[in-house]
Specification:
The chain is of the alpha+beta class. It is built from 18 helices and 11 strands.
Length: 489
């Protein structure tokens, strides 16, 4: 019989950080999607496992041998308000495996039923939101952005009640870990310093083992997480990704993107873009994401003060504050380096072409993805596709003249620049109207074909292919104007 080589260190090493719990078996599990490539990457020998067995294993109907499901405890600031006890209200950590690269990976359910942390929720999930998580995670991964990923989506054969009745599903999510800023907040809020230290030591050993030899490993942990988040958020910004709910319980210490609820990708460039139906004040708008990340990191640093300076936690405030304040410069350096790579130029200090380019996009509401991508055409001497995105041609012409001067001064040939630009700027992203089209087909008609086709397109986001023109186009203006996304809970 095929087995999965689980090695469940979180349950073993941190028993007081979670509650052993069993999923609620679904009535009629049916496999909607199985990520065979990810399964192979994880070292799962499942090629000879029947789809119905996979559906049972990855829905909670029949757990694979070695699984040790637990509901993890965490707290969190949600839209700025602190909730001391959140936890896995509809999720279970099934177990961990060591993948083919020697990396420890979590395998976890989402939508597998109520847990001790469910509060008033039903613990369930619907097909649409779970497929959204699949699509977004795979898209980010293909774009080279650290992200959790979906191993499986299984229909439960049961109904979920939200605003309407929806078909239920369970997602199996793979993550470097599910340790969040909110996980640290849970124990810090309770004054449970022994458990807090155990969590910090475990996090260092799992994600940042080089810090064990640091003069102050817990201060070094703040620094390392700040650096990881600076790189991650810069990547989000450069593809127009809007997470939508950057609560502290949705920020992973591993530096991965996690928890895709009302997330979406921006069409027309606008720093104030908000899609989430619950973000009424724009707290998590596109342009606010770097500074919300810094705010979340300050909350992490606060939890670690008693470990940084056990005899006098207040004395740790200046050093921790300096690291959190330093995030702004780290982020700017990452953002600038990544942005100038997207221009096929070496980064420069201070405002320049990059800022001018984004100001031009925003002033003319040009499509963010296509404008970046069509710079490759411009490098080849053809401005037509790029110019079609702009209402006023002269500002674009002026900017292109300056850009070409800098390309020439750098010694980069037009051919080299065009190749570099096509390698750095994707053509295909999960366009919101196409995502909604795919989710509706699966949820309302049981038709997975649009989802599978969209996944195939997004798997190679930098490679232009004939016949896929509809996947490059932004949503019609009427749809884009009122587009809203929802959490799924």
């Amino acid at each position: 019989m095929t087995t999965i080589a689980f090695d469940n260190s979180y349950a073993r090493d941190l028993p007081q950080h979670a509650v052993p719990w069993q999923p609620q078996p679904p009535r009629a599990p049916q496999l909607l999607h199985w990520n065979a490539a990810l399964a192979d990457e994880l070292g799962l020998e499942t090629a000879d496992v029947a789809p119905q067995t996979l559906a049972a294993w990855f829905s909670g109907a029949e757990l694979p041998a070695g699984a040790q499901p637990i509901a993890q405890a965490y707290a969190g600031h949600q839209f700025g308000g602190f909730s001391p006890s959140l936890g896995d209200g509809r999720a279970l950590l099934l177990g961990e495996v060591i993948d083919r690269h020697g990396q420890r990976r979590d395998i976890a359910f989402k939508g597998s039923g109520r847990t001790p942390f469910s509060r008033r929720g039903d613990g369930r999930a619907a097909v649409g939101p779970m497929l959204r998580e699949l699509i977004i995670g795979e898209a980010l991964h293909a774009l080279g952005i650290p992200s959790t990923r979906a191993l499986a989506v299984v229909a439960t054969g049961e109904e979920v009640f939200r605003e309407t009745t929806l078909p239920g599903a369970v997602l199996t999510r793979v993550a470097a870990s599910h340790i969040r800023v909110g996980t640290f907040q849970y124990f810090a809020a309770r004054g449970e310093l022994e458990q807090l230290q155990a969590l910090a030591d475990y996090t260092i050993a799992r994600h940042y083992p080089q810090l064990a030899a640091a003069a102050n490993p817990y201060l070094a942990l703040v620094e390392a997480v700040c650096a990881a988040q600076a790189a991650l958020i810069a990547r989000w910004m450069h593809v127009g990704f809007i997470h939508g709910v950057m609560n502290t319980d949705n920020m992973a210490l591993s530096g991965e993107s996690i928890d895709f609820g009302p997330c979406a990708f921006m069409d027309a460039y606008d720093a104030d873009t908000v899609f989430s139906s619950i973000d009424n004040q724009g707290r998590y708008a596109y342009g606010n994401q770097p500074w919300i990340a810094q705010w979340n990191l300050a909350r992490l640093a606060e939890t670690l003060l008693p470990l940084i300076a056990p005899d006098d936690p207040a004395s740790a405030v200046p050093a921790a504050t300096a690291l959190v304040e330093g995030f702004a410069q780290q982020y700017l350096q990452q953002w600038r380096a990544q942005g100038y790579r997207k221009l096929a130029l070496a980064p420069v200090e201070g405002p320049g072409l990059l800022e001018d380019w984004l100001a031009l996009l925003e002033a003319q509401r040009a499509d963010h993805t296509l404008a970046w991508r069509f710079l490759a055409d411009a490098a080849d001497g053809d401005d037509s596709r790029l110019a079609a995105l702009f209402v006023e041609p002269q500002p674009l012409a002026d900017w292109l003249a300056q850009w070409r001067l800098q390309l020439a001064a750098s010694g980069t040939t037009p051919e080299q620049a065009a190749a570099a630009l096509r390698a750095a700027n994707p053509l295909y992203i999960p366009r919101n109207h196409l995502v909604e089209e795919a989710l509706a087909a699966a949820s309302e008609r049981g038709d997975m074909a649009p989802t599978l086709q969209l996944l195939a397109v997004l798997a190679a986001p930098f490679t232009e292919r004939a016949g896929l023109e509809r996947y490059t186009q932004p949503a019609p203006e009427a749809l884009a104007a009122g587009y809203r996304t929802f959490c799924g809970t």
